[in-house]
Specification:
Elements lengths: L4 E6 L2 H13 L3 E7 L6 H11 L3 E7 L17 H14 L7 H4 L2 E4 L5 H8 L4 E4 L9 H4 L12 H9 L12 E6 L12 E3 L2 H6 L3 H12 L13 E4 L3 H4 L5 H15 L5 E4 L8 H4 L4 E2 L17 E6 L11 E6 L2 H5 L4
Parallel strand pairs: 1-2, 1-4, 2-3, 4-5, 5-6, 6-7, 8-9, 8-11, 9-10, 11-12
Helix pairs in contact: 2-9, 3-5
Length: 343
């Protein structure tokens, strides 16, 4: 390992997966921040990470705050009391050593500017590299992140505040603290291109040795391992937290959507359901005959099981489908399918 040290701040299981892949393939010694608002099992993962691989040094577990919502931090650098809350919270996470973060690390990496760590770095004017928070997500920001539409406007009052008063933390590479933005594929991205560099994640994954793949698989699966190869060519359904995010009215409508997918694309076949980490639906209740995977494992980790194959992989709008290599057929249903269930 090189002597340089690198800090990766993750708020989802997928982001942790990418951090580990980069550490292995680029021979980086890394420390990690795991934010519990997106990684519920952060404490358990921290223990496995520190004992199962020598590429990871310290793991800082960032707990949820009762007073700070990591998805509502747009004005955190504008209101003094929010600044103090973030600073105090991150000082506790870093055990009082937050002020030395810029000196301790050669590079700092963030996947979500408005998370606890990203907001803290912006308040303290600490520069970082931003990474796409999920695969090719920056190609769909305007449709999927409409609450940040003000960033893309070139006129109007909101654009004035954004450009001239720098109200709050600016996500997606707009922040002055963001030195570079790393994406899987720069084609079609909906953010400014000046800072963007393309690092295809499939190429990174292809550089992993079989031993490294097995290590990553063991880290994430932990006690959740099961003999997935015994399931005969199942149909894999990748879910999304439509009810949680408000894209569907409630869980009952969400259940109807997935029953419709089963009826049209997987009737009479073995079904394997991979819930999204933020999905709150009890799929075993709605699909008692299906095999339901643990939601706190990135779907892409199943690529590292050399015997695992599915006949179809289906999703409505999840970009995780693009990272699946174990499917004979991929079906992306799209927004039009979702709109059938919106009254």
């Amino acid at each position: 390992m090189a002597d340089k040290k690198h800090l990766y701040c993750c708020s989802s299981y997928y982001q942790l997966l990418i951090s580990l892949i980069k550490s292995f393939t680029q021979r980086q010694k890394i420390d990690l921040v795991l934010e519990e608002h997106g990684i519920e099992t952060a404490s358990q993962l921290a223990q496995r990470l520190e004992c199962q691989t020598d590429c990871v040094g310290k793991v800082f577990v960032c707990p949820n705050s009762e007073t700070i919502d990591p998805y509502q931090q747009r004005c955190a650098s504008f209101f003094p009391w929010q600044r103090r809350q973030i600073l105090s919270h991150m000082e506790q996470v870093f055990a009082g050593a937050a002020s030395s973060i810029p000196k301790n690390y050669d590079t700092i990496h963030v996947f979500w500017d408005l998370g606890y760590a990203g907001t803290y770095f912006n308040i303290c004017k600490i520069c970082y590299t931003l990474h796409e928070d999920s695969l090719n997500s920056y190609q769909h920001i305007r449709e999927n992140r409409r609450n940040y539409s003000y960033l893309f406007r070139k006129w109007g009052l909101k654009y004035f505040f954004k450009k001239y008063l720098h109200m709050g933390v600016m996500p997606f590479g707009y922040s002055d603290c963001c030195n570079a933005v790393e994406v899987n594929d720069r084609k079609g991205i909906q953010i400014p291109q000046e800072k963007v560099r393309e690092v295809p994640r499939a190429e990174l994954e292809s550089q992993l040795s079989q031993e490294q793949r097995e290590t990553i698989y063991d880290i994430f699966m932990g006690d959740l391992k099961f003999e997935i190869s015994s399931i005969d060519h199942p149909v894999l359904i990748l879910t999304e937290p439509f009810a949680v995010t408000g894209r569907l009215p409630d869980l009952e409508i969400q259940a109807k959507l997935y029953h419709a997918i089963q009826a049209e694309y997987a009737k009479g076949e073995n079904i394997l359901i991979k819930p999204h980490p933020r999905d709150s639906m009890d799929y075993k209740n709605y699909f008692p005959r299906a095999k339901v995977l643990a939601k706190n494992v990135p779907m892409e980790v199943l690529n590292f099981h050399k015997e695992f194959k599915v006949s179809k992989a289906i999703t409505v709008t999840s970009s995780a489908l693009q990272g699946i290599h174990c499917a004979e057929e991929k079906i992306y249903l799209g927004q039009e399918f979702l709109h059938k269930f919106i009254k």
